[in-house]
Amino acid sequence: MDLIVQQSINAISLGGVYAMLALGLAIVFSIVGLINFAHGDIMTFGGYGIFLALVFGFSPVAALAIGIGAAVIMALTLERTAFRAMRGADVVTLLITSFAVSEILKVLFQNGISARPVPISFPAGWSGTYEVAGATIGVVPTVSIIVAFASLTGLTLVLRRTATGMAMRAAAEDIEMLKLLGVRANRVVAIAFAISGLLAGVAAVIWTAQRGSVDPMMGFFPVLKAFIATVLGGLGSLGGAVLGGFVIGILEVLTQAFLPDGLSPYRDAIVLALVIAALLWRPDGLLPAKNANRS
Amino acid sequence: MSDVALLAHPARLRAANAARTLICLILLGVVVAVLAVVFGRSGERIAVQMCINVAAVVALCVYCGNTGIVSFGHGAFMAIGAYLSGILTMPAGIQRTALPELPGFMAGYELSLWGALPIVAIAGLVFAAVSGSAIARLMGASAAIASLGLLIITHGVAVGAREITRGSQTFFGVPRVVDLSLAFGAAVVFILLARLYRESAAGLFARAARDDADAAAALGINPQRTRFVSWCLSGMMCAVAGALYGHMLGAFSPASFYLSLVFAHVAMMIVGGMASVGGAVTGVIGVTLLQDSVRQFEGGVDLLGIAIPEVFGLTTVSLGLAILLVIWLRPTGLVGSFELGPGAGTRLFDRITTQASPAPAPARVAEAVLSAEGLSKSFAGVKAVTDMSFEAPTGRVTGLIGPNGAGKSTLVNLITRQYHADAGKTRLSQTDLSTLSRESIAKAGISRSFQNLRLFQGLTVYENVLVAALAAGHKRHHAAAVALRELQAFDLAELAATPAHSLPYGARKRLEVARALAQEPVILLLDEPAAGMNPAETDDLADRLTRIRHERGIGILLIDHDLRFVNRLSSWTVVMNRGTLIAQGTPEDVRADPAVIEAYIGRGRTAAAVTHSQEETTLKQGVRP
Predict the structure, then answer these.
(1) Among positive and negative, which fits the CA dihedral B281, B283, B286, B292?
(2) What pTM was estimated for this model as a whole?
(3) pLDDT at B613
(4) Between chains, do B146 and A276 touch, taking CB under 8 Å as contact?
(5) Residues forming beta bridges with residue A213, ordered by sequence position
(6) Pair B565, B406: CB distance under 8 Å
(7) CB distance B321–A97 less than 8 Å?
(8) Would you call B152 an interface residue with chain A, using a CB distance cutoff of 8 Å?
(9) Fewer Cβ in 10 A, N or C end of chain B?
(10) What confidence score (pLDDT) does residue B104 get?
(11) What is the pLDDT of residue A293?
(12) Cβ–Cβ gap A93/B324 under 8 Å
């Protein structure tokens, strides 16, 4: 029983991270058509932000805020320097641009900081556990679930209730029309990038708190999973991205917990193969994005 | 252009294609020769690597170039090829030390490279067929990410399957048998294969579906199948290229085929231009030269007295910057969207006068009737078409008119199975069309043009029409003749070698109709063929359509806003409003129908017009006595 509770907590916490990353990817994709390969590097930069803040003697809580801020600034910088010039290019061109940017950033991290993992030490109490009804539950996974759900709910409220959020949803449908209505497209796009950076920053905080170190590839692998999540959910669909993130996180934890030892090296392969099989059944994803296509 | 020049076009195109292939080969040959002669041993090593990369990138390009989808998955095929060929060719003694737990059925073959390659090719093809059955269903970015998933899966399996691959440790003992002549030979064969596929019917279909999947489907091309075929050929070639790469390295690990290799290959392809084989070759050459120059500086050097420190990953950065620069300055790559070298319209080929035999005048089609019975379709509660029934027989131009939003285009899309009807049937004589797939409608005898132009932008005018004739099932030489005939009929002969994207508007509209007619349909559906044309162009089109109907006896369902144009051509007019049939009959009858006047001009005006004419009558009556 307690194993099931623990694994559920782990699954939802990992799914929450993937969901935040996938949602960040989906927001940017739905507005400018960019599949951002550099999203993982934004997350990594957030991790380095935390590391450097701690090195310079900031308190752990301040370091977390600095890490999130670093990710937002990185997202905005990339938008301004690399992607704004390419706005309106086709999906493949944008994808390759971000691919190149991502490779360059990784080399910068390797040379600027270190090619090896650098440790991040948070107060010991943060990595503790507590017991509920006989089940031992980690503090970090619990907090990460709360943070993930708070972020997702907050974002939903912003998108549904505020004028900016409405402008962003409108931009996702038709950015050209939005420009004609006099809304400043650059601002909407910048906010989309800022939100995706914010989500990547929060993911970086959770990830480093669980792993205790940062390396140049830190963000890359979870973002790969998030990519798959966006396709599984339906590319361009925000709800689909969140759903896809949770599905992949849960699948991953399930396979980890219940796969026989002989198969455990193939865990990622099995999860991805399941996702690709799901795409056979629903090529447009679980919650497909609506798009009108007139002939 | 005279008929002579037009009929010589296929021969000139063949010559141009041969010239373009030759240019790729010469380009590669010259660079290889310069490297080997000028730089000696180290140059030769670079040349071998470059040739293997050409093979790999050209193989990648067979999928990406012909489908327009970037694949990150071909590293998986290379890994499979390299490991499989390594195991098959490894000396038994080394194999016992390196892979003690290798399953018995895989051990101890000691094949030569030539014995192993066919097995590698088959394995690549099988793996491509399996993975392609999922990936070919996806389009654009989704397919790109799924292919990345495939790469991760394969990498994971290669790391996990220790007995076969030594896990993440180095896999060694692979005979290093790839020398410069073998590598260059492989590159040449791959370039020839890729060029042949690109210009073959299957390659043309793939490129048509790449440019416009809906238009390709309307011609009877199955876009998913073209992606599948390209993926399979590409996967098979990549597996062989991977085997050669393995035999060049001699020792490798799963990481050798992972993201850095894939990144390098994709970068080469994008820098050169993804749409052409010449682009792939140019990209590999350019990037190889760039990387090998940059590598000199990677270990740190003294430049003009300034010590530049050692920088890891300088080659990666230079590659990234090269991609960014190319994308900013030339989004379609160095070579662009057409093959490197002269097109068929170049003066160089003017002397070629070998003529294609002209197509016979099209036979008159057998009588048939396209009929719709009670068609209905709603979109999320909006009833676009409700209970529409009408007939369009051969030998008649049937006009379909109605105000904007009446449901005319939806109706065409229902007939062509682009949309599936909620209720009702469509038939062509006895054939029930409503159970067919949208790709089978063309085969049943119905071709269409599109309201918004849907040409294949990456093909020439001639190829646009040729692809339609090929899709209709004609053999190559007959298809060529049919294409030439339709180009002639629509005054496009002069433009045969022009890329479709650089045509003037009127010619684009004519090309759409010519493309549809090249399928020799029984019924032709024209969705606003005259929209945006000036009156002279409209009259010209009307003349041509009248002649076609007269000569071939086909039925035309003509949709347009230009009532003068529709009335001039059609002898039967069907009027729709708000998704329903409101009138049909001869153009004169329909024009006088109050319901039609109301739909077009509105109720108030009709009432006014009717009162006005009554007053007139009364007045006249008053005067008469």
Answers:
(1) negative
(2) 0.89
(3) 47
(4) yes
(5) A119
(6) no
(7) no
(8) yes
(9) C
(10) 86
(11) 42
(12) no
pLDDT at B623 over 50: no
Judge contact between B506 and B537, C-beta under 8 A: yes
Least confident window among B353-362, B381-390, B531-540? B353-362
d(C-alpha B269, C-alpha B249), whole Å = 22
- Interacting residues of B130 by C-beta distance below 8 A, sequence separation 6+: none
CA distance B121 to B127: 10
CA B443 to chain centre: 20
SS3 state at B84: helix
Cα–Cα distance between B211 and B227 in angstroms, integer?
A: 12
Q: How many CB atoms lie within 10 A of CB A50?
A: 28
| Residue B496 structure tokens | 């045969």
* pLDDT digits 0-9 by tens, A253-295: 888 888 888 788 888 888 888 888 888 788 788 888 765 444 4
Residue A171 has pLDDT above 90, yes or no: no
Sorted by sequence, the CB contacts under 8 Å of residue B249 that are 6+ apart come out as B82, B174, B176, B256
Tell which residue, B537, B503, B525, has the closest CA to residue B426: B525
Q: Any residues with CB less than 8 A from the CB of B212 and at least 6 apart, and which? A: B454, B455, B456, B457
Residue B148 in contact with partner chain A when CB distance is under 8 A: yes
A282 at B interface, C-beta within 8 A: no
Q: Flag if A96 and B157 touch (Cβ within 8 Å).
A: no
Using the beta-carbon criterion (under 8 Å), do A269 and B323 form an inter-chain contact? no
Residue-wise pLDDT tens digits, B192-222:
999 999 999 999 999 999 999 999 999 999 9
Contact B364/B552 with Cβ under 8 angstroms?
A: yes
Query: CB of B465 within 8 A of CB of B511?
Result: yes
Contact yes or no for B558/B397 (Cβ under 8 A)? yes
Q: What is the pLDDT of residue A295?
A: 40
Q: Which residue has the tokens 């095929």?
A: B77
The token pair at B494 is 């002069």
Residue of A nearest to B455 (CA): A295
- The secondary element (H helix, E strand) that includes residue B446 is strand B446-448
User: Closest to A283 (Cβ–Cβ): which among B138, B144, B267?
Assistant: B138
Q: Which of B324, B451, B526 should be substituted to probe chain A, the one whose Cβ sees the most A Cβ atoms within 10 Å?
A: B324
Closest CA to B276 of B366, B210, B181: B210
Q: Which of chain A's residues have a Cβ under 8 Å away from the Cβ of B137?
A: 279-280, 283
For residues B109 and B213, the answer to whether their CB atoms sit within 8 Å is no
Are A52 and A112 in contact by the 8 Å Cβ rule? The answer is no
Q: Which of residues 72-131 of B touch A (CB under 8 A)?
A: none
Choice among A3-17, A42-56, A238-252, B160-174 with the minimum mean pLDDT: A3-17
Weakest mean pLDDT among A36-50, A149-163, B369-383, B608-622: B608-622
Residue type, B276: S
Q: Pick from B152, B154, B161: which is nearest to A224 by CB?
A: B152
CA B283/CA B275 separation, integer angstroms: 12
* Cα distance between residue B265 and residue B72, in whole Å: 9
Q: CA–CA separation, B315 vs B29, rounded Å?
A: 25
Interatomic CA distance for residues A67 and B593, integer angstroms: 73
Residues of chain A found within 8 Å of residue B309, distances taken between Cβ atoms:
none
ipTM for the predicted complex comes to: 0.85
Cβ atoms of B56 and B73 within 8 Å: the answer is no
Are the Cβ atoms of B266 and A82 closer than 8 angstroms?
no
The rounded distance, in Å, linking the Cα atoms of B582 and B573 is: 11
Tens digit of each residue's pLDDT (9 = 90 or more) over B560-595: 877 888 888 999 999 988 888 988 999 888 888 888
DSSP B561: S
